[in-house]
Amino acid sequence: MTQARLASCIPLPLEHKVLVTVIEKAKDWALMHGVGMRDKKHFTKDAIQIAPFVLLPSPFPRTEFNKAIELQPILNELMHKVAHDDDFLEHTLQNTLQVDEFTAKLFEIWVKVKDEGITQSLSLGLFRSDYLLQYPEGNKIKQVEFNTVASSFGAISSNLPDMSRYILRQLGHGDLIKNMPENRALSGLCSGIIEAYDLFGVPSAIVLFVVEEVSYNICDQRFHEFEISEKRPDIMIYRKTLNEIFEETTLNDKKQLMLEGYPVAVVYYRSGYEPAQYPSSKEWDARLRVERSSAVKCPSIHYQLAGTKKVQQALAAPGALEQFVRAELCARVRDIFTGLYSLDFDESGERAVDMALEDAERFVLKPQREGGGNNLYGADVRAALLRMRRARERAAYVLMERIVPPTVAGYVVRPGGAVPPPVTDLVSELGIFGVIIGTRDKIYCNRQAGHMLRTKLADANEGGVAAGLGALDSPYLLDA
Ligand code: ADP
Ligand code: MG
Asked: Helix/strand/coil (H, E, C) string of 207-229?
């Protein structure tokens, strides 16, 4: 199928000299406002370089953008309920657990903590629901995935509309700024952490960010710390790896997680979502200790389990949504789902395998992983299914219909990239952030909290920004 093209917000290409000049300004704006990351090749803590970004805001239909925003509290609540439905989680994940060690380990912790008795019934969710526009269905949003752990780029993305506005003004197009929505993701996400902190209710308590050994995406993370510190000077934030948490924390007799003599109120994971982040049993022990503690976890382990692709697929199955979402809202939620199929060893699993082998280009094969770079596309889907057809391993994957988004022409500015860059065909993925705090029985807060747009080359399968493939962007809303 040919992809439709959306018009860029101003006609391209730009004249060479204008382009070179505006890129130089844009790069400095980016560096001086933290639209940056650490250099993976020449790592130093003393410098950041620009994060890849799209020079001009990419078009996105206004009605679809608003739809995604309005749906977010409904999706937050859906995921919250799924996470608290023990039977649904257990039933949905049972086959996956046999073949996916990582999900099984998370599940094991969940069971252990439940059996011991949950110390902290509150959970904090800083979620992000991701969408591509489905061109064959009239550029309607379709959900790519729902992130319940370490949903990133809310902070940097909050600066992007200002950057785009600056660039548009430099190009003499200040009149277009009115089509750029505000983005208050950083403030919204940090308010969630602060509200959870206050619900914990211990004055000397601290907030703990769980971080990787090396944080390349440092700006995005630090902005949260700066924002919380500004809003609430009384809250101290610590950054620790899972290994450091193992070495430096204890549980006291009240099951408080203690670090340097202070109880931890909120644990915010920016790591811990992929196997490589648990290189030894120490990291798993640390995760268990945190989960056992009275700290409010973002996410608690059942939120993380609810965010697996397997659960996403199960929710798309007939009748599943109705268990969690009010009848009058079901159609709206179902409308954003695209075809998702289990590969379990049963009749529907076999049908899914046959369907994918017939036309592999129509599908994406997804394992239970986060962080980008794990999915299979096209010929690889076919090869993998042929290889796994009779292997138990198959159940670790879900099959998803491939979404075909419209393209737009644009310039991607990259650290060390050519200046000026060529005009390239791009596609954008919208993420809407959500905040929820609640227990099994009571929801204390539930709201949408801003957005991110990330854009990749149209012919690339994936576009993770931290993985170096995608570029930060902001939406330019189009009226029909
Ligand atoms: P991850 O947890 O690794 O981010 P995703 O489900 O978000 O997993 O997939 C990664 C990327 O792959 C997405 O950002 C998107 O670019 C692409 N992708 C995922 N699912 C689809 C799909 N159904 N159709 C088209 N592209 C997809
Ligand atoms: Mg993703």
From this structure: EEEECCCCCCCHHHHHHHHHHHH
